[in-house]
Amino acid sequence: MPLRILNALDTARTQWYHVTAVIIAGMGFFTDAYDLFCITTVSKLLGRLYYYDPATHAPGKLPHPVNNWVVGVALVGTLTGQLVFGWLGDKLGRKKVYGLTLILMVICALCSGLSFGYSKKIVMGTLCFFRFWLGFGIGGDYPLSATIMSEYANKRTRGAFIAAVFAMQGVGIVFAGLVSMTVSKIFLMNYAGKAFNVDEVFSTEPEADYVWRIVLMLGALPALLTYYWRMKMPETGRYTAIIEGNAKQAALDMGKVLDIEIQAEGEKLAKFKAANEYPLLSNEFFMRHGLHLIGTMSTWFLLDIAFYSQNLTQKDIFPTMGLVSDAKSISALMEMFETSRAMFVIALLGTFPGYWFTVFFIEKIGRFKIQLMGFFMMSVFMAIIGIKYDYLKTKDHKWTFAALYGLTFFFANFGPNSTTFVLPAELFPTRVRSTCHALSAASGKAGAMVSAFGVQQYTQDGNIHKIKKAMMFLAFTNMIGFCCTFLVTETKGRSLEEISGEDEQKNETQMKSTRPVSGHQDDGWD
């Protein structure tokens, strides 16, 4: 029989505090997405401001290595932050390190808009330094938000609540485009320059140097507004009871925020804790959860190669799609405005709905089937784009191209981009849940770095043959992700302790949980 405190959390009716927790944790993801993806809207502006060479008679452009670091350095920081904060979340507690991530994000978002000099090397160096530490703070939000939400939620709506937290990433991406579009338009109304082919020098408006700084610094605002409420959240009942062994305090904390009655079970809790103290690096963990960890790490790695390639390279693909004008025919601010507008439209119509489809259907369809469907459909649409790229890039078919491109975003989010976040928060024991989620998320960011430092090389110059190769490569990685999904199991409708095997240590059925299954709820479980 499960502990009463855990059963009370699993069977609690959905209450207002569950919604509050989604908003508090979700605002962190809103900030994360805004900070990570707004760089896409300003990177071309940075090139025109700091890398214009009169001898080329072409708009300034960030050199490939500089572009890769400006766009990708935050991902390096995110990977590092995920591992550090994920481990600390298991060692010190979820709440103790939860506020620190926001403090880092606020400080570094503000500092990203500052420069300690005027030369392009100093400006880019300052930007990369603070965006690394911004990413470090962002990284901590992944395992902590997912773990906190999974441990607060009841088993009937747990998947929907975790997915709703992650869905705020979609809102953040939409706002990254909207804020960039709005700020650039305000400056265009007052300081519009001439097209580059009319005036090469002043087509890059001097006032544009304020625009990219304002856009980056505004990322501090939502994190700052969330800090107070995040500090008011109590430690999760599962961590306090199972890890700290303090059932009385867990009951007291949860009683303050949830309308449930919890009885302390000191002796039974001590036995429960003693039976689940095997560490991450142990044969016991590998036998029980090894395949699941390989599954969550591999699928998130493969997904993020495609997902971040879509988001980080869209500025290079938009001109080919005809959604933005040729750089020589517009000013620097107009180029930023058109890029932001295209990003906003794609995000609003393709990216954003996918997240919320997952929220509404994850408890009906299940994580496993949604992930399989998403990987498969992404692969199909990217293969079509890769094979028919010459046909789709023509002016007559640009909206067909945009629709196919938008559908890849939709099925990424109504698919593995959401489920790879949910599953690691459910599959593993409380003692190592945050660390295992961090390992899975860090694998994802390793995939994002493949995108930032590898796939981007094929799209930056707008070379048709290279873009076709990139699309076919992404279609292939998605099919591998489809296959690796069979290493994880369905978690819908079960308690965290039932999923992880923490309830019945001697039951033979728990050994079956480490086997890959077909995705049905009762496959591999008696």
Please write out the topology.
Blueprint: H1 4-11, H2 16-50, H3 64-91, H4 94-112, H5 120-152, H6 158-191, H7 208-217, H8 220-232, H9 237-243, H10 247-257, H11 266-274, H12 283-321, H13 332-365, H14 367-387, H15 389-392, H16 398-413, H17 416-422, H18 424-427, H19 433-453, H20 464-484, H21 496-500, H22 509-512
Helix pairs in contact: 2-3, 2-5, 2-6, 2-7, 2-8, 2-12, 2-13, 3-4, 3-5, 3-19, 4-5, 4-8, 5-6, 5-19, 6-7, 6-13, 6-17, 9-10, 12-16, 12-17, 12-19, 12-20, 13-14, 13-16, 14-16, 14-17, 14-20
Q: How would you describe this structure to a colleague?
A:
The protein is mainly alpha-helical and 526 residues long. 73% of the residues lie in helices and 0% in strands. The chain has 22 helices and no strands. α2 packs antiparallel against α3, α3 runs antiparallel to α19 and α13 runs antiparallel to α14. The longest helix is centred in the middle third of the chain and has 39 residues. It starts with a helix and ends in a 14-residue tail after the last helix. The C terminus is likely disordered.
Strand content: under 5%
Query: For the terminal residues, how far apart are their CA atoms?
Result: 15 Å
- Helix/strand/pairing category: mainly alpha
The rough form would be described as globular
Low-confidence stretches: 505-526
Q: Give a count of the beta strands, DSSP E runs of length 2 or more.
A: 0
Largest sheet: none
Number of helices: 22
Oligomer: single chain
The run of helices and strands is HHHHHHHHHHHHHHHHHHHHHH
Instruction: Kindly report the average pLDDT value.
Output: 84
Helix content: over 70%
Radius of gyration: 24 Å
